[in-house]
Amino acid sequence: MSIEKTDVLIVGGGLMGAASAFFLRQRGKSVILLERDQIGQYASGVNFGNVRRQGRFLGQLELANRSFALWKRLPELIDDDLEFIPSGHMRVCYREDEIAELEAYAAAPEARELDLRIFSGRELHERFPFFGPEVKGGSYAPHDGHANPRLAAPAFARAARRAGATIEERCEVTSVQKVGGQFRVTTSDGREYRAEQLLITAGAWGEKLSAQFGEPVPLIAKGPQMSVTEPVPYVLKTVIGVYTKIPEEVLYFRQIPRGNIIIGGCNHSKPDMLNRRAHFEPQSLLKQLQQMHRLAPHMANLNIIRTWSGIESYLPDSLPVMGPSGTVDGLYYAFGFSGHGFQLGPGVGDVMAELISTGSTSTAIEPFHIRRFATSSMQRSKAS
Amino acid sequence: MATARLKNLQKDALRVVIVGAGPAGTRCAETLVAAGIRPILLDENRRDGGQIYRRQPEGFTRDYATLYGSEAEKARALHQSFDRLRERIDYRPDTLVWSLTPGQLCCVSQGKHTTVDYDALILCTGATDRLMPIEGWQLAGTYSLGGAQIALKAQAVSIGRRVVFLGSGPLLYLVASQYLKAGATVAAVLDTSPLRKRIAALPKLLARPGLLFTGMKLLAQLYLARIPVHLGVEPQQVLGDAASGVSAVRVRTSHGDNLQFDCDALALGYHLRPETQLADLAGCRMRFQEVSQQWVLDTDGEGRTSVRGVYAAGDGARIRGADAAEHAGRLVALALLQDLQQPVHGEALALQRRVLAVMDEFSHGLCQAFPWPAAQAKALADEAIVCRCEMITAGELRSVVREKGACEVNRAKAFSRVGMGRCQGRYCSQAGAEVIAAAAGVAVERVGRQRGQAPVKPLSMLTEELKQAEEVAP
Q1: Sign of the torsion angle spanned by Cα atoms A342, A343, A345, A346
Q2: What is the predicted ipTM?
């Protein structure tokens, strides 16, 4: 059996793993990343592509801001174009009382860098004439935008590889253990990898690995529902999303310069974890069309040409598991981004690299620590 | 599992759905009706007949001989059979099945969305043209052979005044002769297959001497009309400009001469590819067919797919042409009846199997005589467009293979957009796979095939769910 040693071993080649590999190389650490399938194949490659900060948990904005600063350094940072456009993002609501909630968010000190501006009434409909009459207000984030998720993780992985990282695709991890001060990871092709530090960025499969180290989390996998229209002239430059507490009303869309309008939301499918496929449910499209008629009624006379899904990981509080393990030295996690990881990707990579190589990070990530689930799981085991 | 469920169902309660009212779908429905089943027949077209026996729109009055030529009697027989069936099946024309889930089809008809539940599903979804790009083929005036034929058959219009026919396969000669007969100027018929391939395929083609003779008659007609016919050509370029479209087609002959044919339209095609998106969405297994060098549905000899309760017949299952489709339609119905433990005459089964074996042999002969020109993909200039919907060049596709390591079709699609447009890869992904394989230096079956994604055809955003009240209204 061949044994390969490295400073840091990363399991999972989504955007988080690929970006971490890149930034760890920037800090001079040797890195091997193991991906069972292809880089960015699941959540990272199929998501909506929102590079959105507004609307996030306020305690996450510091991380999102750090990530945003990295997005702005693209394409130079990784010498690759992820089609990032800081086009502006508009978060709209259907109810008057929700405007106050958008205002409160905009007024929060954590959101200061976002330069949010609230629109309502006539001003709203003059500025965004394509909204239907049910749209009552909205919060405009001038710096937020969108990028191409299909390109992001592979581009970070290539940049990491150019910087000296080893990226192994189609390489399935069969066992992970810590022996002495070292992690030993074996793969189905019979190789063994050893490292003093191990980062788990395995998305919907992250929980399987954290559970092996005695840190189970109540993660569930969901399939995002995405559809796209044929190309039409590029006029809707702002990314639009609906702010609501009713899941079926959650619709978002963006137009890309070549003209297609990408639509997502309203529903999730249950992925087939055995075959690692998630399906787009036909019913989702009907829901999206219905909500689209409400949000932007004039966009009706277009054709949907494709739909897709993928496998995303959600935690009950909609916050990721990110940071050091609560029980094992040298073990780190970054998974379970609950449908909002794309914008965070570069920042997560940067922060995890900082944390792993220096032992601490200047960005607050305490709310995402895995130990928040430890109490409840211990309580559960006591109860049983 | 589904078969177990099928067995327990009474014939009356059984929901059998056929998709496609061409030769396979019609004969399948007929066989099921004879066994006392009333199938639902969904068809995207406004009238039955499929592509080959497409019926002209109401108000057109061309006779069978004009419309279908040598196939007039077969067309008439099929239409008459359909007319007799009409009241004994639940026929729903103008209905696109755009997606499905296990046991349920998602349909849209005239902007209204409905679902149709099924216990058994028989896909008779036919085929479309198989295309290989040529530099300049994005210019207006370039049509597929099938498209050129539909223009003539359905609308009685020609795709141009002076038309070049380029490609390979029986359809090349058939459509050219139909255009000739209709009074269009056929500038040239340019076949990429050399004569020796046809000679080598003769033993297999002799499986159906009648059809071989019909093909030779078509060729004779073209020669008699002094149409330039060249075999073994290498396509070079479609000339023209964005404003006025196609102006000429340039090829290199087997002797190495460059020939240029002035024209205002080009009909292009290399035989057919099966329409398998619904089967793909249903999870049916596919296999790479060596003889045709393409992915086809993996069915048993009678039309059962790898998914229980899902069957397929006709060109959508295996490219064997219209005559075979009629037999395969009957056979798949018999297979379903067997699975339902209904009495089936062993002789009827054996007959269909025997006929289809002959047709298999012939279709293999055709693949050999008119081979898919894979080498063209390798030779394609970097500037040539591969994906016409997204306007992606061969060079761009090659660069994602070489620079980004995308050696698999779906990966290359994600990086390059080839196959991401309106046609969803139906017209470009086979050629795209060849370009990828050549750039990666591997066999084409190693680069996979583009996964089917709903909707099967573009779906209008005006689509609305049919209200319950509308459904029950008389």
Answers
A1: positive
A2: 0.93
